[in-house]
Description:
Low-confidence stretches: none
Structural class: alpha+beta
Oligomer: single chain
Amino acid sequence: MYALLRPDPEHLRRYIARESVRPVFDSPAVLPDPPPRGYHPNRAEIELGSGKEVFEAARSALGEWRQFPEAWAMLEPPRLPIAVGGTVAVVVRYFGVWVVTCCQITHVFDTERHFGFIYATTAGHPLAGAELFEVVWGADDRVVYRLHSYSITRQLTARLARGFVRGLQRRFALDSPAAMLAAVRSTCGAD
């Protein structure tokens, strides 16, 4: 959805309700590496610190969607519970236009040392694809945040703005790890 004025929360809720019942991209529980032919990958990883305290802070931050940079991305609902079937709208503004895209959670991972989820694009999204967000507390005691996605343009507007779309994805791959690191440090002062 595109708008010249910032969409109000009620309008966003109606849009999410429509998108939540539409088909979503068929995402596997493990994203393929490399992605399917024609799909563009996007990845990022950052070490957040070590130990249980850091892992719990990272798990909490991911559960609160703090991997999204508040400076340029807004979510509706802002703190959607991490559960299969939940649909979230990501709202960004660029070149004076508000763009709203929806994704639906398709898989959740929640163990003692691994927390994360995959969400997939809904039918109205300009891209077809899926994205994994996860925090892992490794056997070496390090806690790592990873994002991994792959997508392909499906709408004419996205095809025409392909370079910009890819640039936005690269920017997210830089800003998201920084947002997670800041969230963890604000909770437990991890280095």
